[in-house]
């Protein structure tokens, strides 16, 4: 493949890593196993206090892998450091605990028609570090679509999934859209990919590309709940909503934005009542939400009797 770098352009894979020693070797190996060979992997060790650095330095003797060590600055900042060091025409951001199938890069590069298209992929979760538990998670956005339509399909159930490793992005689009917002932590990927996708001409779907999303890790950012991270989630969804509405302002985009914000309220009430109150005001400004609180068993029965907020409080107390 290296014999013709015009046909097979360099892909830069940007990987932030913080205390990733348990999983990073598998993530790196999934890159090494690619059938597409013209890639570089830039790992930014974000101030890890475990053996992340040692694993990369001792287990991987590979010229295509570059390790950069920085003080702990957050995943968004680490991704930006990796991007600035990249040389590829196309960029993939990949988290240090996720995996990609061997054909992913080859399949995505083959579909990259021009520098104005983003290539997406399939994805699914696996649990307990066991790939035998992996199942695909089909979505309505698993097809080639214009940007606004792709986002609307992704947001329709208020559970958008924009894990970085799903996408292959031309560097030209990143230069237009801008880098990762380093003020964000939780849901920073939603903000980043919303603004980046809206810069593209279309999102092209690669059915042959698979992201294996590792779920249920103790200590993962998605499992941390404190006011700082909840504020980040709110800021990210609000910014993403404003991007979408600026691109196309209609009843559908406003409803999808309101529903995405409402899902945050369902997730973080009653633990963070002040923020939930702020979010509810934004929901009203978007003309209200239609998404219902998802519960089952006793919670569902309580909701009918006393409303979802009281039911959620009781469910929280009983946990």
Topology at a glance:
Elements: E1 11-17, H1 24-32, E2 39-46, H2 52-59, E3 65-70, H3 75-85, E4 90-93, E5 99-100, H4 104-111, E6 117-127, E7 130-136, H5 147-155, E8 169-170, H6 171-177, H7 188-197, E9 202-215, H8 227-247, H9 251-268, H10 273-285, H11 298-306, H12 308-318
Helix pairs in contact: 7-8, 8-9, 9-10, 11-12
Can you give keywords for this protein?
319 residues; four-stranded mixed beta sheet; Spore Coat Polysaccharide Biosynthesis Protein SpsA, Chain A; alpha/beta
* CATH superfamily descriptor of the largest domain: Spore Coat Polysaccharide Biosynthesis Protein SpsA, Chain A
Question: Hey, roughly how much beta strand do the residues contain?
Answer: 15-25%
**Total domains:** 2
Distance between the termini: 55 Å
Low-pLDDT segments, ≥5 res: none
Tell me how many strands there are: 9
Envelope shape: globular
Radius of gyration: 20 Å
Helix content: 40-55%
**SSE string, helix = H, strand = E?**
EHEHEHEEHEEHEHHEHHHHH
What's the CATH class label of the largest domain?
Alpha Beta
| Biggest sheet details | 5 strands, mixed
What's the total helix number? 12
Specify the CATH architecture of the largest domain.
Alpha-Beta Complex
Enumerate the strands of the largest sheet in spatial order, edge to edge or round the barrel.
3-2-1-4-8
CATH topology of the largest domain, what is it called?
Answer: Spore Coat Polysaccharide Biosynthesis Protein SpsA, Chain A
The assigned structural class equals alpha/beta
